[in-house]
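Hi U.,

Before I forget, here's the chain from the pilot set. I'm dumping it here mostly so it's searchable later in email.
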Amino acid sequence: MFEGISLAPSLACLRHGGPLRRRLCLFALVLSLWSATVDAGARWRVVILPGADPTQPAVAIQIRALRSALTAAAPDGVEFYTDSLDELRFDTNDLTPQFLALLKKKYEDKHIDIVIGIADFALDFTRRYHNDIWPNTPVLITSIDESRIARMPPEFAYIAWHFDAHSTLALAEALQPHASKLVIVSGNTAFDEFTARVAEQAARSRQSREWTVSLWSGLTLDELKTRLGSLDPADTAVLYTTMYRDREGRTFFPFEVVAPMARASRAPIYGWFPTYLDQGLLGGAVISYERNGRRAGELAASILLRKVSSNGATLPAEPSRCIVDRAQADRLGIRSALIPDECEQINVPASLWNQYRGTVLFALAVVALQAVTITGLLWQRRKRRLAEESATLRANELARAARISSAGELSASIAHEVGQPLGAILSNADAAGLILENPEHEVSELHQILADVRRDAVRANQVVQRLRALLKKQPVEFVSLDLNATVDDALALLAPEARRRRIAIESTLSAACPLIIGDRVQLQQVILNLSVNAMDAMQETEAAKRVLTISTRPSEHGVELMVLDRGHGISDAIRSKLFDSFFTTKTHGMGLGLSIARTIVESHGGRIGAEPREGGGCAFTVWLPCEEKSRLFAPHQHVSDAARDQA
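Structure:
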């Protein structure tokens, strides 16, 4: 027990020294023994003896929890030693002698404070060889089924657990209320056969349902997958215990078999080991490896701290927990309403309300505010649209009033233009009457007179129709048209006024101009407004220079219309205000003609401008997009819609 401490000098002193010396030597011996005891108790040495491979998840979880609990309780740290024969996958009868010899050699000069065995192999091995390897050392056995307690030596401490097959079957009965067939799957090692017996005994003793039990032990994985794929999920449940080895000698960690089984099986698979979860297990009453390892570490620490005696020390078995994999339940078509309330559900489909309730409430508040804002914006947009439509209607009315005003300015020339054919018609009518009074009238002369009357009537009618078309209240209609034809119509109305004012009109219309999209009457009004303004500007111009020039020519992506005069021109001071509403330099003008012209041109996607003309006068330029370019321009459609609403 006191390895590394030499007691020979103190013992010799006690045998050969005097009374005082013997007292001092006795004191030194006691002090040495006390120091050795303190040193031995300060740093614990613990052997962990798992029956299975320590890398197996079930074992690794327990060892990690056990070490954590012991380390937390140790006054000066812990030295851990782990030794495993892995009897679940190897034949221990052949290997036990060598394993025993290894441990004896390994620990013959090493003081061990406690041995912690995990599962059945550790119980059997320590019961037989404990005194040969670790004499007088406390032993704690954990992770054994309750049925193994009867084999426990009285000096051993232990923690048993419960393979809750009954509660696992109760879960299967709840999730599959119409199932009556139970398939138990296991391997063919001794431990596999033991867990299969636990499941079979529980199934045959169930009072709530009479199960027809089939035991599949030691089948190869391929055989298992074939059989599982043929099961009827409506009346069959599968209970998987453990499978460390199949009949052909292939070894497994039991959890490795679950995933391929679950992929092949049409029926739900149940079990009581937590490492099967997330591998395809539907659920079961599972034990907790982490909790079991931690409790074993806490009991071992209590023994080492001498809080309890190791002889028969134990803790009650932990109850199992019902766990259901919701993702597997959904995959198998099992309704969530069948899951018992006491069962914990894992892999539950994400729910925004459950996971992000605060975020959802905030998002709903933001959406509500956005909805209110959008509603307000839509209301404002509707009001703005109605206002725009109303303004467009007023603008159309104002444009029509401007056309009527322009017609008023042309009234004298128009009256003269109509009066001439009407006078000729009257003269021809008088002549026809005189001819008819003569008994020997000439029929050919009457035919000539009727032809003249018809010609003059057509001439007067054309004047009236052109004027009527200009003044008529009609919807704005954007169509494909030739700007030259529109200019010709406007010139027919302007010609009488130009003659009355003794102004010559020169027109140069390019035949290469592309078609445009526009309203014929509105564009005609632009030409009239610009032309009448040009005529007004030339009132003071000498007669020889009174020339109104109108031309068209193709330009980049459109057509260019120019109206030029030799009037008084425009100054830089007024050019910036020229197209403003109600701005005029005339004593009798309203200041709307050019403003309306700009509005019409812009509604067609075009531009209008004015520049002083070299040699005197002014040049107005209107650019309008060609048909292809104009179809990409949207604003004029709004004007058209408003005009149709008006109509």
